[in-house]
Structure formats: structure tokens, C-alpha cells
Amino acid sequence: MPSAFRTDIQALRGLAVLLVVLYHAAVGPFAAGYLGVDIFFVISGFLITSLIRTQLEQSRFSFWEFYYRRAKRLLPAAYVVIALATIAAPLFLSDVGLREFHTQVIGALTFTGNIVFWFQSDYFGGAAETKPLLHFWSLAVEEQYYLLLPAFLTLTPRRWWLLGVSSLLGTSLALCLYVASRDPSAAFYLLPTRFWEVAIGSLGALLPASPRVAAKLSLLRIPALLLLLVIPIAPVGSQHPGADAVLVCLATLILLLVPSRSSLAVRGMARIGDISYSLYLLHWPVLVYVRAAWLTEPPAAAIYAAVFFSVVASLALHRFVEEPCRKGGVASRGRMASGLLAASVFLGFSPAVAIAATNSKVDFNQSRRINYGLGGACVFSPGSPPEAIPRDCQTTDRPRLLVWGDSFAMALVPGLAKTVGEAGLAQVTMNACFPAIGVAAFSKSSKTAPYYPPAFGEDCIRFNDRVLSILKNQPEITTVAISSPFATAVGKDSMLLKRNGDTFAEVETSVDGAAEGIKSLVEAVRALGRRVVIVAPPPVASFDIGDCLERKARGSVMLGRYSDCKIRVSDYRRMRSRTLELLNQVAVKADVEVVSYHDFLCDDTTCKTEIDGKFLYRDSGHLSYEGSEIIARKTRLAERLIRAAR
Q: H helices within 181-210, ranges in order?
């Protein structure tokens, strides 16, 4: 790496942070602005590897010096942002959100944030937009890389540097492409599948200088720059990390290897690059809290104000924290090291203090716990279809009512179980698997969260086949209630997997395709001499209803039209228009009753989300345990289902 400061690299940092901020703010056409993080990875690998290489060649590399410089460069600004986010958290986050935030703080302080968020990205986990320290995952990936790189370069003979880094890069890239189609969350967050991006920068730093190669690469400078500008607007790949990340990383490497001449545009972008680290740290928690205040997407003016505030605050953070600490002299090393250690301990405990200080007499964790119905044993995993109904998934030895479906079916069960009486109830459910025969929904893109690959669709079809076989062997079950939101079966972000004999075909979602699958299930159940009824899903909202109810009870900051936490009937009908069309079509084609408690919850304009202070919902659509019981008792739901089945 040249010893002189390179304005063009600082300009690349400016471009990277602009892409990320505008993507997170949903401003402009940057559908893949998240690729700014990939640009950061390559730049980081190039600069840090160049530094280590130079110091090793001059026999002056020190592990202590390296990590000390990294700490004073990164930690002070990061700690200020963590502290500010912690102070604001009780004003905007629910009890569940606060506890998750505490884990996020620990992850940020220990550079394991990527692992924390990987664990928090489960089916029932909160949306990414609700996690104030989510962006620390990328810092964790970098620091994990730099726990390995110095040791590798120090212990490996120099003649093996290029081969070693190239081999690790290729292995990581192959692993990334393999995992991305199977577990996108792991591919996104974890070091083994992100290693290759930082390693591309390292490889560039280790390449021997060659004027002839540099001359040829200079011809690619303009195409590389165009790629960095076009790919974030018009991505070509369906999964991430994938083809888009590869193209962006290679384009970034070319620009690093062929320095650009200074120009007004480069110098202007470099000024943004100067505050890129502070802006990256600050913008995300600001946007998270603004969106939390509005419950759903805020008005454009609020987003623009949040971005403007982030830029101004970043200038201050850079001027008064980042730069002074980065330039701290040798005499202050002991004081800075002890100060950072004390700050780490303090910040690690501070969320617990915030939780205790805002603790409510109401146990929101209990009232909003995940509703598994009769229990986790009744929720079957993909690839492990049930052989029989587990004993814990029956309320009597010979239940007469079977509840079959996905997580919405689970949420119905607690209330039905307490009101069905001696008839008894059994539960067989699988997350995200809507009840149908020969058809299932899966995610159209791996960028969808949560992501369900085509293999999940096959598992869902087999699960439903297996439930039908179990039903055949349990003649005491006379009534089958199927339940689901049915939204994925007709959603624009999904595809349908249809069975044709021994093969499967992928087709676009449609009301007709989903209706045929549900009709096939109804006919198959009736062919066994059983009666069947469909339970319509409860009204849903575009915001997290359970979170809203809790924050309203806690007196948190809430703005906008949804601050009363009620569901607008017009919004619900618009959001679920295709689902309602599907249910109407199934009712006619399959001659089956669709039982709804819409009239109980809703008037002409709004739907209730709480009754007598009890939360009916635990999140944006699933009923809470209390909500399930209240609705079942007040609507006599079990009795209605048995009576309506045919």
C-alpha cells in the first residue's frame, strides 16, 4: 500500500456509506444498496493487509500495536453510539425488544454481533428493522477476520501468502454460494461465508506490483466504476451474497489496484468518506427509532429528517470523538486501554439497568410468549414429518377434533383446547406450511425473510401427506379444522411448488392454484369419512400489534395513525385482498364452510386488538395465549367449528 493518503479510497468509502444509508432509508432507486457493505469489506481487507505486509517486511509488526490501533480507531465512536442507543432504547422498544437489545450490546462489545443476529433471525424473531445495533454484524465479521489474518501472515512463509489467501478465498466463496441457497441467514452473517469478500482485498494487497498488469487494469477502471453505480440499482442475482456481491467486490478491487486521479467529484465523495464510519454507526439506530415511533413506515419528511440528523451527528462524532481518539499519542495508551475496558464493562451492564428501571408490573414476556398451542412437540420440523400424533398433542386419549395447519393454527389451539370439552382436540402443525394436498408455497428469492427454499415446499407437501395418513389411522377423529393465514399461497414474494406424479414443478402463485390444493385436501379428508371446516385467519395489520399494545401500556413514544394499536378494516382488506378472494373461492369450489370471528372483533372501520386490557395478539398476526382463549370463549368457536364442518 502506498504510504501516501489515497483520496480515491476515501471516496470509495463515501460511495459505500451513501449506498447503505440510502438503502436503509428507502430513498432513491438503490434496491441493492446493501452492497455498500461489500465494498467496505474489500477496502478494509486491502488497507489492513497492506499495513501488516509493510510492517512484517520491515520487521516491525507487533500484535499489541496492531490491536491497540484497531481499538482506538473503532471503539470510542462505537461506544458512544452504543451508549446513546441504550439511553433511547426504553423510549422506543418493547420489553422483548429491550432484552434482545441487551444481547445485541453484548454482541457488539465482544465482536460477536453477527452470531447474535444469526440466532435472532428465526421464524418468530423480530424484524431486522427493530434491532438498533443490527449493523454491528459487519464490524464483527471484520474483527473476526483480523483475529486470524495477522497470525496467518506472521506464521506463514511469505512465498505461501498468495496461495494461502487464494485458497481460503476460493473455499469461502464456494461455501458461501452453497449455503446461500440453503440457509441465507447463515450465509449473510457468518465469517466463513463472508471471509472471501475481505480476502479479495487482502489478495489485492499481496499481489506483486506489475506495471504491465496495472496498465491493463486501468482499462477496466471505468467499467468497474459503472458496476459499482449500476449493480446497487439493478441487481442481477436473486440471492445475497451471490453474483452481485462477486461483481461489486471485483470492481472494488480493480479500483483499489488502479488509483484514480483526483477530481472535484472524487474530493467531494472523499469528504463523505471522512465521516463514513461515524455515519455508518449512527444512521441505523436513528432510523430504527424513527420507524419504531411510527410503528410502520414513517412519512417521507421524518425519514429525510432522520438522515439529515444522522449526517450532522456524524460530523460531530467524527470531529470530537473519532479523530481525537485515533490520533491519541503513545503517552495515553495505558489510560485509553483502561478507559475502553471500563467502558466495555459499563456498557455491558447498562441495558440491564435500563430494563430494571423501566420494569412494569405486567409480565409482557409472558403475555407475548410464542404461541405453540399445546406445545413445541406439536410443531414439526421440515424433513421430519410425524409418524403419529404425539401424546402431548392431544387433550384426550381419543380426540374427535384435529387442528391442522401452520403457526396460525397453533395460535388457535389454546382457546379451543379449553373450550372443546370432552370431545377432545389434537394438534398437528408445521411453521409456514399451509394445509393443502400436492401444493406448497416457498420463497421466490433468498432475500425474503424468513426464507423458505424449494426443498421446504417438498417437505411441506410430504408433511400434509403424512397428516392425511395419520388421520386415516385414527377413526376417532371426526372433524378436521384447517387454519392458516393462506397469504404466502397467493403472495407476490412466493412461488408455488406443485406435485406432478413423482416430480415437482415451480409455478407462480395464484388464487386458482392455491384453491385447487386446498380443495384437494378437503376432498381427501371427506373421502376418509370425516368432516372438514376452514378457520379464517384473524385480521392483521402492517405493524406489530403485540409490540404496539405493549408500548402503549408502557407509555412509550408512538406517533401516527396507528398509535391506538387498532387494525383498520380498509387496510386489512387491502393487504389481504387475495387471501379473502382465495377463501371465497375455496368455499364455493370445495363446498366448505369458512368460519371467521371477524364480526366479533371488527366494526365497519376498526378491529379490536385487546379486550379488558388483555392482548389478543402477540405480534402482527398471531393470537396470544390469552387472545386465543378470549376469542374461543366469547365466540363459542369450538362449538361453531364442529357444527359448521361438513
A: 184-189, 191-206
What is the rounded average pLDDT for all residues in the chain? 93
pLDDT value at 4 more than 70: no
User: Is residue 331 predicted with pLDDT exceeding 80?
Assistant: no
Integer Cα distance of 88 and 108 in angstroms: 17
DSSP symbol at 318: I
Number of domains in the chain: 2
Q: Decide: residue 403, CB within 10 A, 0-12 exposed, 13-18 middle, 19+ buried.
A: buried
Cβ atoms of 303 and 286 closer than 8 Å: no
| SS3 per residue for 57-122 | HCCCCCHHHHHHHHHHHHHHHHHHHHHHHHHHHHHHCCHHHHHHHHHHHHHHHCCCHHHHHHHCCC
In this structure, the answer to whether residues 145 and 265 fall within a common structural domain is yes
Do 187 and 294 fall within a single domain? yes
Q: Domain check: are 148 and 267 in the same one?
A: yes
- Residue identified by cell 464490524 is 139
| Residue 282 shares a structural domain with residue 336 | yes
Residue 3's pLDDT is what?
A: 46
Domain interval for residue 453: 367-644
Q: How far apart are CA 5 and CA 9, in angstroms?
A: 9
Note whether 282 and 317 are within 8 A (CB): yes
State the average pLDDT over residues 221-245.
Answer: 92
Global pTM reads 0.90
Stretch (H or E) spanning 508: strand 503-508
Q: Domain ends where: 355, 377, 403?
A: 355
User: Is a pLDDT exceeding 80 seen at residue 440?
Assistant: yes
For residue 131, tell me if it sits in a domain: yes
3-state secondary structure of 531: strand
The 10s digit of each residue's pLDDT in 14-49 is: 999 999 999 999 999 999 999 999 999 999 999 999
> Are 338 and 382 contained in the same domain?
no
Residue 277 to residue 77: CA distance in whole angstroms: 9
CATH number, domain containing residue 612: 3.40.50.1110
| Separation CA 442–CA 453 (nearest Å) | 6
Examine the domain organization and report whether 404 and 345 are in the same domain.
no
For 568-612, the pLDDT digits (tens) are: 999 999 999 999 999 999 999 999 999 999 999 999 999 999 999
Alpha-carbon gap, residue 34 to 184, rounded angstroms: 15
Q: Residue 450 pLDDT more than 90?
A: no
Last residue of a domain, one of 306, 321, 355: 355
Q: Return the pLDDT at 339.
A: 84
Decide if 360 is inside a domain.
no
Angle ∠(458,459,464) on CA atoms, nearest 5: 100
- pLDDT tens for 347-379 read 999 888 887 877 777 888 888 999 999 999 999
Cell readout for 84 is 446513546
How many other CB atoms are found less than 10 A from the CB of residue 139? 21
- Rounded Cα distance between 251 and 229, Å, is 10
Q: How far apart are CA 513 and CA 608, in angstroms?
A: 33
- Stretch 135-159: mean pLDDT: 95
Q: Is residue 342 located within the same domain as residue 422?
A: no
